[in-house]
Design goal:
Blueprint: E1 2-8, E2 32-39, H1 42-69, H2 74-88, H3 93-113, E3 131-134, E4 140-142, E5 147-150, E6 153-156, E7 163-166, H4 171-179, E8 182-189, E9 195-201, E10 220-223
Antiparallel strand pairs: 1-2, 2-9, 3-10, 4-8, 5-6, 6-7, 8-9
Length: 228
């Protein structure tokens, strides 16, 4: 599998836009995003679809627990949900189960905690929390355990084993991957069907509820809470 790599300014992940053809960077200290557009075979495409379907299913299995317990702190949620999640979805493996927990925790913060969200606790004190549902082109989160980049080769986890493909990256980019803080690695599918891996480096912490995100993720559906 081959890739086309670009570097572009940091922003909230969007599946509506394709990565630009030319590279650009943000100001020092704000971080940057590296995007790789994957070009693979039909078999590889299906393996990515299967991985996303499993990841989505696991996210939707975990979301009701977050809604019922009002716990979306990633560490606390990990202690609560990791073991049952692994038992229910053994194909995920240990680290991808952690990434599911991260994904649901991240989405819950966006919906329940972000001050710009119409469903935030601050705007709806005492009301039942809405239900989160992951649907459509759900992004799949990776980390240094489930994805590696070394010697011009990227290797990422799938439920059928590792998928490897060659990349042509400048040495500086590989150095950054080895040495700099990597906040997120996201696999997303664009509207034209292409797959993109994005690497977010040294972004501000998403734990801060004062950081607002104006673009609502199209894969996240929020519905009214069921009657108690």
């Amino acid at each position: 599998m081959n890739t086309v790599a670009t570097e572009l300014p940091v922003q909230e992940p969007s599946l509506q836009q394709q990565p630009p053809l030319r590279a650009s960077t943000t100001n020092a200290g704000t971080g940057f995003r590296l995007c790789m557009r994957l070009q693979g075979s039909a078999e590889q495409h299906q393996r990515l679809l299967d991985l996303r379907a499993l990841f989505t299913q696991a996210c939707n299995a975990l979301a009701p627990l977050v809604q019922q317990t009002r716990c979306w702190n990633r560490v606390a949620l990990h202690h609560m949900a990791y073991k049952p999640l692994r038992e229910r979805f053994p194909q995920l493996g240990s680290q991808m189960a952690c990434n599911v927990i991260y994904s649901v925790s991240r989405a819950a913060r966006r919906v329940y905690q972000d001050h710009s969200s119409p469903y935030s606790l601050a705007r709806n004190p005492g009301k039942p929390l809405p239900v989160l549902n992951f649907s459509g082109p759900v992004p799949v989160y990776f980390d240094r355990h489930t994805l590696s980049l070394k010697g011009g080769e990227v290797s990422l986890f799938t439920q059928d084993g590792r998928m490897r493909f060659n990349v042509d990256l400048p040495r500086d980019i590989e150095r950054r991957f080895r040495e700099e803080k990597l906040r997120e690695v996201v696999l997303a599918q664009l509207p034209d069907g292409a797959w993109v891996l994005s690497f977010d480096f040294a972004l501000a912490s998403v734990e801060d509820p004062h950081i607002t995100h104006p673009d609502w993720p199209q894969y996240l559906v929020v519905s009214s809470a069921p009657a108690p």
